[in-house]
Design a protein that fits this description.
Length: 695
């Protein structure tokens, strides 16, 4: 049969083909037509070549991508895939062929603005896109922050700043078993929290061939449907497990006439792989990047001479830090899971598919029409010393090697439901820092409030704005006395607030203003002065090392700790509420808490940034940086409700639209629904769609 491309009313592509390979080709083709600029951004980021057309603002990432060997790792992983799973490798090649066909002659306006010629995907490029998208997902730079805290405040202080940090991404996910639904069949719902990007990081798509028929959220540039899918008889979804599976090693390096050597744990200096790459930068001179790899992994910070402007660490040794991450060690990125997921018919099939999963490490929830359910961790976490998970460890000392892989934990349902929101759950043995329990506790409480649930009722949970993490600050406010009359009135108003971060709430705006003032005052205290100037590590790691965000996201711990290095917290809270009482915000929460999507290139015609409900610890997780900015760059990158009773009763939405082409009618048409918490129908009836073409 011919490969057919259809569209529904929202411009979502529905593809029908005679084989999985033909379908992969069509998926690549339609993705390139809809999102050519996005695909090329992702390809160049994986290769470390984005500065060649974006300029100096992209240089820090490109240097990291080169030094971390992302493109080379993708090549290795694809070569391994060809050896172990040749059918999957051919399927990936078919997708790449479709991408290249779709990119040929693309007229996306961004190419003309930057002078970039699209095209040139290699068979391993989807693996590089996947790796570049997730390499920072586990937040290994947090270990650099812990080193700073331990060096200046002592190791016991590390826990004070433990929180879902500024560089991590999370998700909400919940599974309601058939015994708790009106249909007797399970419902799975949730929303992945990631950077909100334009175009979006998830692509709504429908893939159909004789082998399978699946709707779901794809990652543009990667074939299949990895994270969130519904085959009609089984559905699955994931959340970030918050596991720690990447290590940082402090290396001792020296130059020799033959190159660079690294000191290994057995006391022997061994040759490190070394070469130099040239990074092109639009409008500027090219930059040299020295690429060094030891027996632990690629050196991503410093080198034999240390860092420019900061040549040595406190021990007097030059700074050189290497990164060890599973795909670089194993040559396996987990792509062997993708085709089996599409072919899944039951929970057992999904379970077996996720046995192949590698990175990132996720918590999986799945259910099927026969009553089967699944709640497990999937991915590869190395067995090694506990200190590896906490800090940067010395490469030259024994005891920090990897010794195999953790078994992935499993869990069940409690009272007919399972909830994951990056809290300490089944993945607890595999991680160090997890999200606070507020989102998970709130979802569980809401689900407990009704005996039977329908798919149609789930958006009320998606959009809940109750902020449980406000309690410590409100408790501190309640204990204050001798306030000015203005501050006392503000305190009393906040103590009567319903703790909902609604866009139209003036009380939420007042709370956020006081919170921000407290964060800034705590961060400015002399006790933390040594943390205000981070080491001169590469720019890509600076979000993890900035003090104000760290204080903002750890405010609960800092306010409730028994003692805080002599910081007078009541005085800080008092000063903050007096400050806000003198100059209160004039409007409502949505006036300052506005959507700020990331774009590689700013649009020629700027878009209005809509006001948002929610906050970092609400179920409606729209996250600014307390004390720094209320503009939200992170939030629900999609919302979904998978109904196992009737797939046609499932619903989904993305923040902007199905198309990545500016000016397209489907570029931003889902934004009003996303803002309101509404969803669009999942369409599977071909007779209701508009046929676009045969390919």
């Amino acid at each position: 049969m011919a490969t057919e491309i259809y569209r529904d009313a929202w411009g979502i592509p529905h593809l029908r083909a005679g084989s999985a390979a033909e379908l992969a080709h069509a998926q690549g083709l339609v993705t390139a037509r809809d999102r050519a600029w996005q695909l090329e951004i992702e390809r160049h980021r994986a290769q470390g070549t984005s500065a060649s057309f974006l300029g100096g603002s992209a240089l820090a990432w490109d240097r990291f991508a080169r030094r971390a060997r992302l493109d080379d790792t993708a090549r290795r992983c694809f070569a391994d895939l060809e050896r172990r799973e040749p059918g999957t490798a051919r399927w990936v090649r078919a997708y790449v062929d479709g991408v290249n066909e779709g990119l040929a002659g693309s007229t996306s306006p961004e190419f003309a603005r930057t002078g970039l010629t699209p095209g040139g995907w290699e068979p391993w490029t989807p693996l590089g896109v996947w790796l570049a998208t997730h390499i920072l997902f586990a937040g290994f730079p947090a270990k650099l922050w812990r080193e700073q805290v331990a060096a200046h405040l002592g190791a016991d202080a590390i826990g004070l700043f433990a929180a879902d940090g500024p560089g991590t991404s999370g998700s909400n996910g919940w599974l309601v078993g058939g015994e708790r639904t009106v249909t007797g069949q399970a419902v799975i719902a949730g929303d992945p929290h990631r950077w909100i990007e334009d175009p979006g990081v998830y692509q709504q798509i429908h893939l159909s061939c004789p082998e399978f028929d699946v709707v779901g959220l794809a990652v543009p540039g990667v074939p299949g449907i990895a994270h969130f899918g519904h085959t009609g008889t089984v559905a699955w979804a994931i959340t970030n497990a918050m596991s720690d599976y990447q290590d940082l090693y402090r290396e001792r390096l020296r130059r020799t006439g033959a190159g660079v050597e690294a000191l290994d744990p057995d006391g022997v200096w061994r040759r490190a792989a070394r070469h130099t790459e040239t990074v092109e930068v639009a409008g500027e001179d090219p930059v040299e990047a020295e690429v060094i790899e030891t027996g632990r992994g690629p050196v991503i910070i410093g080198g034999p001479e240390g860092l420019d402007g900061d040549p040595a660490d406190p021990s007097g040794l030059p700074v050189a830090i290497s990164l060890r991450y599973p795909p670089r060690v194993t040559g396996d990125l987990g792509f062997a899971a993708l085709l089996p997921l599409l072919r899944a018919r039951r929970v057992a099939d999904v379970d077996r598919a996720f046995d192949h999963w590698a990175e990132p490490v996720n918590v999986v929830q799945a259910a099927d029409t026969e009553g089967g359910v699944l709640h497990r961790v999937a991915g590869r976490v190395p067995l090694r010393a506990e200190t590896n998970s906490l800090r940067v460890v010395p490469a030259w000392e024994p005891g920090h090697e990897w010794r195999g892989w953790h078994a992935t934990p499993r869990a069940g349902l409690t009272d007919g439901v399972a909830v994951m929101a990056n809290q300490r759950g089944p993945a607890a043995p595999l991680g160090v820092e997890f999200a606070p329990p507020h989102r998970a506790d709130r979802i569980a409480a809401l689900l407990a409030g009704k005996e039977r649930w329908s798919a149609a009722a789930m958006p009320a949970i998606h959009t809940d704005t109750h902020l449980a993490s406000a309690a410590p600050l409100l408790e501190r406010l309640a204990a204050l006395d001798d306030l000015t009359s203005e501050a006392a009135a503000l305190r009393d108003r906040l103590l009567g607030w319903d703790r909902r971060m609604d866009a139209g709430s003036a009380d939420a705006a007042l709370y956020a203003a006081v919170r921000g003032a407290v964060v800034r005052r705590l961060a400015a205290h002399p006790a933390f002065a040594a943390l205000t100037t981070p080491p001169v590590y590469p720019e890509v790691f600076q979000p993890w090392l900035a003090l104000v965000p760290r204080v903002g996201f750890a405010l609960e711990h800092l306010l409730r700790a028994g003692e805080l290095f002599g910081v007078d917290r009541p005085a800080a809270v008092r000063a903050a509420i007096e400050e806000v009482a003198l100059r209160p915000p004039a409007g409502v929460w949505g006036d300052t808490h506005r959507l700020a999507p990331w774009r590689a290139l700013e649009p020629e015609q700027p878009y209005d940034e809509p006001g948002l409900s929610g906050d970092h610890d609400c179920v409606l997780c729209t996250s600014g940086v307390p004390g720094l900015t209320e503009r939200a760059a992170r939030g629900p990158a999609a919302r979904y409700v998978w109904d196992l009773a009737r797939r046609e009763d499932s619903r989904w939405v993305v923040p902007l639209g199905a198309s990545g082409v500016p000016g397209s009618p489907h570029h931003r048409d889902q934004l009003p629904l996303w803002l309101a918490g509404d969803l669009v129908p999942v369409v599977t009836d071909w007779t209701t769609m508009q046929k676009e073409c045969d390919v």
